[in-house]
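Record now logged for everyone:
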Amino acid sequence: MKTVRITAKTIDAAVEEGLKQLGISREEAVVHVVEQPSSGLFGLIHKKLAAVDISAPDEEPAKEEPKEAAEVPAVEEKPAAVEPEAEPAEEKPEEPKTEEKPEEKPEEPAAPEAKEKKKSEDFVFNPEEQEKTADEAKKFLESVFQGMHLNVIMERMMNEERILFNLHGEGLGILIGKHGQTLDALQYLTNLAAGKEFHHHYFILLDVENYRERRKDTLEALARRLAAKVKRTGEEVRLEPMAAGERRIIHLALQDDGAVTTESEGEAPHRYVVIKLKE
């Protein structure tokens, strides 16, 4: 099977170019999407092109006709010579059988998940470590805002569960992005940059002008409205793809509703919530 990897701005453009190179139609091709295109952080940094593998199936080799078996010349059968009867061999006493012991298998190493769980159980909260993590996060964010020429005031609040930076300033909508996608990306990078020394034990949450609280209220209202629709029509409703945190808001908003149930379906990063009647 001949395979070519094509990169382009979109998946369709990559597929079209691959079909041209292989000289085959779309129906003959085997298409595997290696990487989805991405606009990158803030639409400016780390943009990604679509990457697609296009394969052309090999032509099936012609099947060989079975050859007729060659005729075997007849052989004249001769009467077998009669051998004298052999004397019965002396019976040897059976040797006592030794019981085979089952092989002892070496103990399997502990799974990585178990090691991570033990590491988490061994963690002890340390205010000084958390303070240092928060300082590193602030330095990282200041460098990002300086590069973007943004004047941002950072309000910091901490408890044992998280470090919250609420960002204030003019024109900070660029930090939020569509449905908070840019804010989530910046939060992920901040946790990577600030949490290395203490193994990411101290979670950093970013917010812009209390956007996350407003978004939570919006999603809860949407969940209740769509649940009412499901009860009225009896048909399930599928929401648009959401990040894990937003899907969790939908699940929690309807967990006490006795008439409907919610499930997450699809593959990351395109997982979505389905609301349907309970069976």
Remarks:
- The two ends are 47 Å apart (CA to CA).
- The chain is about 35% helix and 20% strand.
- Residues 233 and 277 are 10 Å apart (CA to CA).
